[in-house]
Amino acid sequence: MSLQGGVSMAASNTDSIKPPVAATSQWQEVRHGETVTDPYRWLHKKDDPKVIDYLKAENAYTDAMTAHVKPLADKLFQETRARMKETDLSVPVRRGNYYYYNRFEAGKQYPFFCRRPAAANGQDDVNGKEEILLDGNALAEGQKFMGMGGTSLSPDANLIAYWVDYTGYRQFRLQVKDLRSGKVLSDTVERVTSVAWAADNQTLFYTQEDPVTKRSDRLFRLKLGSQPEQVYYEAVEQFALEVGTTKDRAFVIVHAQSTDTTEDWAIPADKPTTTMRSVLGRQTGHRYDTDSHKGQFLIRTNRNARNFRLVSAPVATPDEAHWTTIAEHQNDGLITGFEVFENYLAVAEKSQALNRIRIYDFAKKNWKTIAFDDQVYLAMNTGTPEYRSGTMRINYQSPVTPSTVMEVDLASGQRKVLKQQEVLGGYDASRYEARRIWVTARDGVRVPAWAVMKKGVELNGKAPLLLYAYGSYGISMEPSFSLARVSLLDRGVIYVQAHIRGGTEMGEHWHDDGMLMKKKNTFYDFIDVAEYLTKNGWTSRDRLIIQGGSAGGLLMGAVTNMRPDLFKAVHAAVPFVDVMNTMMDASLPLTTGEYLEWGNPNEKAAYDYMRSYSPYDNLEKKAYPAILVTTGLNDSQVMYWEPAKYVAKLRTLKTDNNPLLLKMNMDAGHGGASGRYDALKEASFNFAWMLDQWGIKE
Predict the structure, then answer these.
(1) Which of the 8 DSSP states describes residue 118?
(2) CA dist., res. 650 & res. 640, Å (int)
(3) 463, containing H or E segment
(4) Rounded alpha-carbon distances, angstroms, from residue 361 to 326, 355, 385, 657
(5) How many CB atoms within 10 Å of residue 37?
(6) How much is the pTM?
(7) What digits encode the pLDDT tens for the residues 299-338?
(8) Could you give the residue numbers annotated as active site?
(9) Contact 345, 357 (CB under 8 A)
(10) Interval 663-696: pLDDT, tens
(11) CA–CA gap between residue 328 and residue 245 (Å, rounded)
(12) Which domains are assigned to the chain?
């Protein structure tokens, strides 16, 4: 590889700061008869010191260009920290003879995972002796990054399996701790993605990812103290594996999932060496998931039910001929999941971009709906470990209402608030308001959105507005509460979140209409929402900033190419912007498993369509808005070189004087910094940069 140019940067004062100039290389490839060049291909080589030097130069340039916003970033950080109850604990939840909770201590980055014995009457004893199961701060000691993948308790509650990532690359190491002795066992496994215990308290099932593709393609059985045995290998590249247990702990369930198809296998938890048995086999287009209840499988299925229905069937004969429908398919309501109890069933649904929960009484065969009156809110099951519980936990919040843990009586449907997130510093929800917005897209489809603002903000086109969206993978964006966002609202900023096609906020068709050969609907919806906001007095083009991350970063890149005149500034976080080079490389994590979401570029029609919107491939010589790109060197989902190449190429084409900045966390991955304070500092910097673009200095 021959490199021309180099990395250069001069910085004496703000006026004279020059951006780094990326070297170029000779690289080309023929795709469907088209000769494709990529002068920044050399940035793919992470182990090349020249690559690291270039990325450090970009960080230095960003530091120099944003030195003036750092005092504001520090102020935002302190504001948000002052709202945070730094020493706090979650609402304890019962499992067996203990109540489990997480707690934070002031000044510490990570939580403590704890439990205490239940009182004689089964209630939580606040004076019970605390046992620290895991100390996240101790696990992170001496590490630049620490990400907890998950934990799993053995049925007898004497052992805890946990898996931790120290790189940001989401590469987790499994370990097991004996809670009686406090010792960590010698059983250690790398690249673990999910774990489930058998009933004997000695056998673990786990899934493991491929070291290159990061696809979870293998299932192992591990008898503690012995060598693991491979139980299953998933050969089909579009599928990934996950393992868990049913709520009643009767079965270990192995779940294989692609974008449009799933398959479940069941293993009796008390017979872990039994050959796993497929519940309903695998049929293209059939998606289902399984739990068990009193000798029946409960199955959420999309067979003849686009938005899913819920059926039961005998464990011995779970095929469709033996199905009994419990929850019918609804055209206006998507069944997103369910939680089974001994006497009740809780079904989570999404309708008109809002959540609702319905409770089914097995004995009475009737339904109760847990409904909320607010225009905009989030309500969801948080998981109740006890199968025999007569109550369930839900979380309620809204853009103006802090996170609230509620207990729902399954028999009556009555709700009781157990705890609401305490916001220090005199936060008053009545000072803010949230509104629903419906925007008619260019093809006549109504797109939902919501806005939150401080009361009194005039819709005269002058307000600064931050528009956020995602729109991929069938993932719904939720109207949650944010401590950090309050600092924007208090400065007169309107925050809007658009439920554009590609998610499932309006049902499965919403995802279908924003993927594959309909992907551009996602971009059109976003642009149409932005146009609506500017035409109806919410903001103006010179006051509109947009934000999105990961696949939402692709959205940012696409709409900025399409309509650079529409936006004041753009924050693209860990953005999937080099679509073609990624999707043409089958060895990368974000490739073969994604064909069913984006298309297979080895097919000419799909290639041409993806090529037509790929942000990196459609950069042009024209004016662009101010752009901040943030990412992590160890990102496993979107390779660091995607945003790095995007910025390098755009620098050679943009005809404006607006800032173009790359900020790369050299120690983190897709989720950014792992500690709560470090993550808050990153968010504060991003907001400070936006405020500066709006001309808000304090």
Answers:
(1) B
(2) 16
(3) none
(4) 11, 20, 19, 64
(5) 11
(6) 0.94
(7) 999 999 999 999 999 999 999 999 999 999 999 999 999 9
(8) 550, 635, 670
(9) no
(10) 999 988 888 888 899 999 999 999 999 999 999 9
(11) 25
(12) 336-424 (2.40.128.660), 432-539 (3.40.50.1820)
